[in-house]
Amino acid sequence: MSNNPVQVGSIRCGVGERLLLIAGPCVLQEEFNFVVAAELVRLREAYPVNVIFKGSFDKANRTSIDSYRGAGLERGLSMLAGVRDKFNLHTTTDIHESYQAKPVGEVCELIQIPAFLARQTDLLVAAAAAKRAVNVKKGQFMSPADMKNVVKKLNQAGCEDVLLCERGTFFGYGRLVNDMGGLVTMREFGVPVVFDATHSVQEPGGLGNATGGNNKLVAPLARAAAAVGIDAIFLETHPEPEKSPSDSANMIPLQKLESLISTIINIRNAIKEKN
Q: What's the longest Cα–Cα distance across the chain?
C-alpha cells in the first residue's frame, strides 16, 4: 500500500506537507550544476518549499543519434554527489536500465522513471529494490488511470514511497496536451502527484532532428496545475537555457524561477483557505 505523504530521504511530500520543488539543468553540466543548486538553496531558505536537485547523466531517448547524451553513469553520479555534499541537497536522476537502480540509489534519495519506460516492470522492480522513493512519469501514451498498475507494481516489489508525475499526453504529431483532471485521478491512488511543467510544453521531434518546445507555456500550465492541486512541481531550469545541450526550448530561465515558485505557493495557500 502506498503512502501519502511519502518519505524522500529527510523530506516528506504529500498531504499537509510543503510544496516540493524538483528542479535542475536537465542534463548535468559541470559548469552550471552549482549555479542552479545555489539558487535552489536560496529558494529553500526564502520560501516554505522543500527542494530536490535533478540532473540526468544520460539522455537515452534523444531524437537524433548525434545528440549529446550526457556524462555517463559514473561521472554523472559523481556530479550529483558533489551537489549533495556541497549544498546539503537531496538529488534525483532518471534511470533507463535495471542495473542503474542500485548505484543511483546509493547517491540519490529519489529515483526517477522516465515516461517512455513507465510500464517496464523489470525497471520498476529494480528501482523498488534500491530502497528509495520512486517518482514515475506518466507515459505520454498512457491514461492517468493506467498509472494505478504502475503503483501496484512498485508496491508489490516493496516500494511504498511512490510519486506519480504528469508530463503531457501525445496529441497528434509533435504536440503534447495536459489533462489536468488526470492529477485528480492519480492522487486517488493514494500517492502524491507531481506536475512536470517544462516537459509538458515539449514538441517531440519538432525541430526535425531534435525536440522543440514553447517555454512561454510553462508558467500558465504550472499555475493551472497548482489550482487543481499538486504536491510537487518539476521544472528544468538553467541560467543560460540556450547553452543547455538538452531541452533548451522548454526550460525556464533560472532568473524566472523564484517568481513562478512564489505564485504556485500562493495558489496552494488560496486553495487551502477555500477548503
A: 51
Provide the residue range defining the domain that includes 44: 6-274
Grid cell, residue 28, equals 548535468
Round to whole Å and give the CA distance between 30 and 102: 23
In a domain, 1, yes or no: no
Residue 125 within any structural domain of the chain: yes
- Enumerate residues 6+ apart whose C-beta is below 8 A from 184: 228, 229
On whether residue 114 sits in a domain, the answer given is yes
What is the domain count for the chain? 1
Burial class (CB in 10 A: 0-12, 13-18, 19+), 35: middle
Length of the chain: 275
Question: What is the Cβ-side half-sphere exposure of residue 135, based on CA atoms within 13 angstroms?
Answer: 30
Please spell the DSSP secondary structure of 90-135, one letter per residue: EEEEE--SGGGHHHHHHH-SEEEE-GGGTT-HHHHHHHHHTTSEEE
Give, for all 275 residues of the chain, the pLDDT tens digit: 788 999 999 999 999 999 999 999 989 999 999 999 999 999 999 999 999 999 999 877 756 676 667 789 999 999 999 999 999 999 999 999 999 999 999 999 999 999 999 999 999 999 999 999 999 999 999 999 999 999 999 999 999 999 999 999 988 777 889 999 999 999 999 999 999 999 999 776 544 444 566 889 999 999 999 999 999 999 999 999 888 777 767 889 999 999 999 999 999 999 876 65
The CATH number that applies at residue 27 is 3.20.20.70
Tell me whether residue 249 is in a domain: yes
